[in-house]
Amino acid sequence: MPKTRPAAPERRSVHAQQGTAQPAPAQRPAGQRPAGQPAPAYAPRQAPVAVREAPPEQPVAPPPVRRKRRGRRVVATALVLLLVLTIAWPVGLLIWANGKINHVDALSGAPDTPGTTYLLAGSDSRGSGVVDDGTEGQRSDTIMVLHKPESGPAALISLPRDTFTEIPGYGANKLNAAFSLGGPPLLVQTVEGLTGLTVDHYVEIGMGGVRDVVDSVGGVELCLDMDVDDPMSGLVWQAGCHPADGETALAFARMRYSDPTGDIGRTDRQRQIVAAIVSEVSSPGTLLDPRAQVGLAGSALASIAVDEDTNILDIARMALAFRAATGADGLVGPPPIADLNYQPGGVGSTVLLDPQRAPLFFERLRDGELTAADFQ
Question: What is the pTM of this model?
């Protein structure tokens, strides 16, 4: 029997015959694939969803800073100017003052000894306003040794001007005769021979200039425990402490004939004046007043002379050492004295230092071992 062939599949044109209606595909929800169709390897791209962005925030305007910045600039400028003035003024003052110093030949060139030694000579040959007390010629009424040891207290030693001692090249005489005979160099050599200390700085103070210096600091307070009416110096004083102007301070420094202790008392009063001046100079009223500084420096420098190696900084160090010596921890006084009216013949009345105690006194001074007991 003839085998029946399977019916061939019906072929249809991919193009629909004209006039033949094609069934509409079934509508599916978006994103849903037909049943049985595998998922694609990659998810189909979808149109990006437009996101409505929030409007940009308006920046908050900062507060105005122009005035604040301007104020800061003004403050900064003021601080810079203050710093410049703080540095420049003292430096300028030092340079100016250093140029006004009077220098004299004084130092001996002897080998150094420990510590720093200043020789202060009060002289009537410098400055103006000297009161005539009948003594002629160049003289040194006050001779003080200020010593700052390497360790130990500072000491201010008053050497009586009539101290009997050996003057190089002239033999034995009163100490202040060295100044009259050979000026500062001979006085330095004589003091070095007497004390065993090498003088590092020589400072000659014109007693006539005391008046101007005292007036420059506005006066000082001075104390004396006796009434005085001395025609030679012009000092009229009531016992006690009183403010003194320059003229009174000068008479206070010069008076000796009405003092029962003579040159010892006069040296004490002159030391008191210098201490009072140093105290006033270091007071805030002077340190913070440029006018006062210039006036004081001018009057002080006009009445002093120093050795050729001493400058304004050395003078400042001397003032600090003087203040330390006259302070609570310092030592002040004369060396041991054996006789206040020693008359060796030919030179009148002199002051004789104790030949046993004085050499040890100066050794202890040199080494910074001096104590208050050494002055008794």
Answer: 0.70
